[in-house]
UniProtKB/TrEMBL annotation:
Gene Ontology BP annotations: chlorophyll catabolic process; PSII associated light-harvesting complex II catabolic process
One family name in Pfam for this protein: adh_short
Source superkingdom: Eukaryota
Range of residues in the leader sequence: none
Keywords: Oxidoreductase
Protein EC: 1.1.1.294
UniProt KW Oxidoreductase keyword: yes
One annotated GO molecular function: chlorophyll(ide) b reductase activity
Source organism: Handroanthus impetiginosus
Name of protein: Chlorophyll(Ide) b reductase
SUPFAM superfamilies found in the cross-reference section: NAD(P)-binding Rossmann-fold domains
Amino acid sequence: MICCREAINMMQRQRRGGHVFNIDGAGSDGRPTPRFAAYGATKRSVVHLTKSLQAEMRMQDVKNVVVHNLSPGMVTTDLLMAGANTKQAKFFINVLAEPAEVVAEYLVPNIRAIPTNGSGKPTYIRFLTGLKAYSQIFSVKEYTYYNEIITSMPPEV
């Protein structure tokens, strides 16, 4: 919050203004994040912070600073892999997680396409949409998680 405040204050003083990009993650949609409750809670709050800052910019008639939200989806990270200790977790990582480079190939051009002339509107750029996730889950044939082959969705827990 402090970083957003300081960045917005600095950008308002610049002739060209600027853009703030907040990044959400697991839990940002309100779904639970077992074993990662604090992480999920902070990511949920990122969405609220972004929407609140957008509203404040409108209330103050700030036109040269825009606050956006990025949703990279499930990115292969040490944190994600640390939680991959069940067959079900491994299945979803195999099906949904992407390396950072793949996510960046999508996000960066979308970020760069946002107008920089001060007329931009807030955006919510999502890499892993609900539709994409469902289609990946239900079209899965075979995925490799390290040396383990997962060929079907595990039973519900």
